[in-house]
Design goal:
mainly alpha, Arc Repressor Mutant, subunit A
């Protein structure tokens, strides 16, 4: 890897960290691109090529991951959680949550109570993916496709 590519990757990581710190704020692509010292268009292109998703989709996924924790660990309403993690619309939040997790926020809350496991196991278990639906014994089940970025796949539906 060239020094230039390494430097760009480091700046993109810095920009992604800035997005993580301000996940509940509206996405300002111009400001985040400035953190990486690139133009908006170049930032979006390179972010997608390096991380496999656009900055907007990354931020949506991070917000959904945070909302999954709040749904499990608190008794706050879905609407309050939706607004706290940075969504402006309950409809958009519910649709995005269902796209990424595979079920509605209220269904997720009913199926998933507070976790009583070490933090590292909690992080692995709450990563949105179809891995949670796989049987524990690999030989007993056909291989399933897992999304590397947590999108619920439609593979289960014919």
């Amino acid at each position: 890897m060239s020094r230039e590519a390494e430097d760009l990757n480091r700046r993109l990581l810095r920009a992604r960290d800035a997005m993580d710190r301000a996940y509940a704020e509206p996405l300002d692509v111009r400001a985040v691109a400035a953190v990486a010292y690139v133009s908006e268009a170049h930032f979006i292109r390179t972010f997608r090529s390096v991380f496999g998703e656009t900055p907007h989709r990354y931020l949506q996924r991070r917000r959904v991951e945070r909302s999954m924790f709040l749904l499990r660990e608190t008794d706050r309403s879905v609407t309050d959680i939706c607004l706290d993690v940075g969504f402006n619309s309950l409809g958009t939040f519910s649709r995005t949550f269902r796209d990424i997790v595979g079920e509605a926020p209220s269904e997720y809350r009913i199926r998933n109570g507070p976790m009583l496991a070490p933090h590292c196991y909690q992080m692995a278990a709450t990563r949105p993916s179809v891995a949670a639906t796989r049987p524990l014994v690999a030989e007993a089940a056909p291989a399933t496709q897992s999304s590397s970025f947590g999108e619920a796949t439609a593979a289960a539906a014919p």
